[in-house]
Amino acid sequence: MSTASPHAGRPEALLEVRDLGMTFPGPRGSLRRRAGIRAVDGVSFDVHPGETLGLVGESGCGKSTTGRMLVRLLDPTAGRVAFRGQDITRTGQRELRPLRSRLQMIFQDPFASLNPRQTVRQIIAAPLRAQGESAQAIRREVRDLVGLVGLAPEHLERYPHQFSGGQAQRIGIARALATRPELVVADEPVSALDVSIQAQIVGLLERLQRELGVAYVFIAHDLAVVRHISHRVAVMYLGRIVEIGERQQVYGNPAHPYTRALLSAVPLPEPAAERARERIVLLGDPPSPADPPSGCTFHPRCPKARELCRTEPPLLRLTAPDGTRQAACHFPEV
Ligand code: SF4
Q1: Is 41 helix (H, G, I), strand (E, B) or coil?
Q2: Is the shortest distance between the CB of 305 and ligand 1 below 6 Å?
Q3: Going from the N-terminus, what domains does the chain have, and what CATH number goes with each?
Q4: Total Cβ atoms within 10 A of residue 208
Q5: What spacing in Å lies between the alpha carbon of 103 and ligand 1's midpoint?
């Protein structure tokens, strides 16, 4: 399990995300068409070299849309993203090209993200070729990369369909790491895999972080997996961050009622602890971002909601005296 955040004592950020937003057009002919649907709204965080920030929340909360904006697979409609101090929010594709090698992505479905007509060698070599590496250097690098992710040299001439899901994800990881990126956005990289394979891939990502110093934004709905790999955690609800802080704080003493409810549903390894703990059952499904509730958007499902919550949206505020944790709640648990 990852220990204390490696950025402790190093204030410079690798990635700075400020007030990031994505508004999609509403359905044709609807009253929402012009106002649009806010999938992501006012998201801000930093990622530091060599650390893992976990981004969690239920399906549809905007975490994957956020991840895609970080690497400019989607263009934000608001806010900005700076990588190593350079604003990349509206950088043209040509200027973005040199940055692509330093900022990579791993996808949820490894098979969908690998070209079925290319061999593993061709897949992993593609980003190196795009960088203009020599044929000899590419051959050496590709061989090293398959070893690094635990595949064998004989796998190099095979095609994606000849692999299991876990092996295919290893190929996706090798491709993402080929250019030695400083930051990898991993979007649900283990959710399509069996539990035993999940542990192997998470272990592999941790080892690669130790060896290469790469930082991750690790997006997942599984809080147990996020707990294992993350140094810090951001919890999203309906397009916004509702709590962000060091992993020990967020998991050990969650400040936001939504985080509390999510954590209360994570199975505990000890049967006695599992029997003793209180489950917080949320009312209903998450509301649609096309028609968000007034005030705190969590209020229709929140067991602690009061009158103020129905009218006043809470701001993301510091709840820990040392400045390491923020929550968007009028009545946080502290
Ligand atoms: Fe619940 Fe109110 Fe806090 Fe929102 S602001 S999470 S409704 S207590």
Answers
A1: strand
A2: yes
A3: 15-102+211-327 (3.40.50.300)
A4: 19
A5: 36
Report which of 24, 44, 42 is spatially closest to residue 34, judged by C-alpha positions: 24
Q: Is the predicted pLDDT of residue 3 greater than 70, yes or no?
A: no
Which atom of ligand 1 is the closest one to the Cα of 312?
5
Of 240, 283, 298, 317, the residue with max ligand 1 atoms within 8 A of its CB, to mutate for a pocket test, comes to 298
Cα–Cα distance measured from residue 77 to residue 239, given in angstroms and rounded to the nearest whole number: 13
As given in the structure block, the two tokens for residue 318 are: 């510091």
pLDDT digits (tens, 9 = 90+) for 81-105: 999 999 999 888 888 888 888 999 9
pLDDT in tens, 273-282: 777 777 888 8
**Per-residue pLDDT tens over the stretch 160-193:** 999 999 999 999 999 999 999 999 999 999 998 8
| Residues recorded for the chain | 334
* C-beta 111 within 6 A of ligand 1: no
Q: Of all residues in the chain, what percent carry a pLDDT higher than 90? A: 73
DSSP 169-221: HHHHHHHHHTT--SEEEEESTTTTS-HHHHHHHHHHHHHHHHHH--EEEEEES
Ligand 1 atom nearest to 332, measured from its CA: 3
Beta bridge partners of 234: 55, 244
Query: By C-alpha distance, which of 121, 192, 202, 127 is closest to 157?
Result: 121
Q: Determine the distance separating the centroid of ligand 1 and the alpha carbon of 301, expressed in angstroms.
A: 9
| The amino acid at 63 | K
Q: Are 82 and 16 in contact (CB under 8 A)?
A: yes
